[in-house]
Amino acid sequence: MTAATSQGLSRREALRRSAARLSEGGIAEAAGDARFLILGLLGLETRDLLLDGQKILDADEAEKLDAALARRLSGEPVARILGAWEFWGLPFRLAPETLVPRPDTEILVEAALASVPDRNAPLRCLDLGTGSGCILVALLSELPHAAGIGLDRSEKALRTARHNALANGLGNRAAFAAADWCDPLRGRFDLVVSNPPYIARAVIQQLDRDVRQHDPLAALDGGPDGLDAYRRILAGVRSNGLLAPGGRLLFEIGYDQADPVRALARAAGFTDFGLKQDLAGHDRVLIFGLSSG
Ligand code: GLN
After folding, report:
1. Within its chain, how far is the Cα of 195 from the centroid?
2. CA nearest 66: which of 37, 43, 23, 27?
3. Distance from Cα 123 to the centre of ligand 1, integer Å
């Protein structure tokens, strides 16, 4: 595709031709991808395409679109091309060091909110392996008097998370710091949440190409059996006494990890407070507390 392919086209025509180009290139969600790319690249809302669809792309816009289509055709996911994605209806910037937020992870946010007796309470939240910060930011957006800390090993992820908290108006209630899981954190938290790396190392090669080639390995690799991060977090939360009385610890898990993660949690002294499934009916979120509350 040459640099000028999309030049001189109206927004609507560019959308039509981009979808056709992606479809011919074997991209399954061609129409949706073309729409997300055009909206994201041109900074438009859906209504700008409907009401202002005749507006002609300028040279710069056409060049950006052509480059983005070439990247999509080579297999790069739309979220990576845009460097941004939506989660919980909020905008998030991404970095190569952060996962693309998944719709499944909204189940974790929902379960965490459902476990809170009073959403107006001054709750303290902790997000372990925060990445883009999407879980913590989504929680704080629903808990008006809560404050939270997001920890991650990656400084670049932390910079992205800080940007996302600020951009969503939560800069004064969210703090981010570098840590190896919860060492050496102290304090008491009402909600401890984590979507840690949980793919067994040997299985990573079998993931979709989009994930395998474009998501950061450190956010996927859960060690030989996929459970390393859960062991570390359970031990750290327990020995540092991070869970407040009545507090809840929530994990995102892989579809086949409910039993082993429950066993690890029980052995670490936690009580089982439930399991949530995702939209596909797979086990996706586990909820734990301390027996006293
Ligand atoms: N759900 C992700 C995937 O299937 C894995 C995310 C993780 O390991 N936390 O690609």
Report:
1. 8
2. 37
3. 27
Do residue 35 and residue 165 come from a single domain? Answer: no
Q: Mind listing the pLDDT tens digit for each residue in 29-62?
A: 999 999 999 999 999 998 998 889 999 999 999 9
- ipTM confidence: 0.91
**Domain boundaries, position 192:** 93-289
Q: How far is the CA of 197 from the centre of ligand 1 (A)?
A: 7
Assign residue 17 the CATH number of its domain. 1.10.8.10
- pLDDT tens per residue across span 169-216: 999 999 999 999 998 899 999 999 999 999 999 999 999 888 889 999
Q: What is the mean pLDDT of the chain?
A: 95
Residues 146, 183, single domain; the answer is yes
Q: List, chain by chain if needed, residues with CB within 6 Å of any ligand 1 atom.
A: 102, 195-199, 207, 211, 220
Q: Are 127 and 194 in contact (CB under 8 A)?
A: yes
Task: Specify the number of domains making up the chain.
Answer: 2
Query: Could you identify the atom of ligand 1 that is nearest to the CA of residue 105?
Result: 1
Closest atom of ligand 1 to 198 CA is 8
